Amino acid sequence: MSGSRAAIRYAKAVLSLAVDQKSAEAVNSDMTLITNTISQSEDLNKMLQSPVVRSSEKKAVLSAVFSKATANTNNLIDTLITNKRLALLNDVASSYNHLYDQMRGSQVAIVTTAVPLTDDLKSKVLAKVKELTGKEAEVKNIIDESILGGFILRVGDTQYNASISNKLEKLKREFTLN
Q: Where is it found, in Gene Ontology cellular component terms (predicted)?
């Protein structure tokens, strides 16, 4: 999640409005789609960040890409364009997702492994996260072969690194110090 104060303020405002209008879940789906689309499309991200591209062109592209977005999401995009803050769209969407999860009492557990998690391991991770935090969690698996084996579990601000590469690095430091 972005640490941008402005992004968090916009996200809080949209969440408050969406809760009042009972459309928070639909807006959350929009925000998830926005973050996924922007992270997967380097061209879209560059266009949003570019001061050279006109706001009207950015709006036309966003309207075409997110044509099925809710009224709240479209209003957010219009507001960001009006305030010349459209570059914050990805951060606002990410902040909204985080705030929505907090409101629902759920969280995302990011598990980095060298190979994809099996369903059995996913259920064990979910059980462990619930035991540790007392909250429901959604598991997001990131595959990174550079960790060699083991896993890295990140829930909120807490990280547990049980990767082989981390253990090898610790051994290397021990041998270099002695």
A: plasma membrane; proton-transporting ATP synthase complex
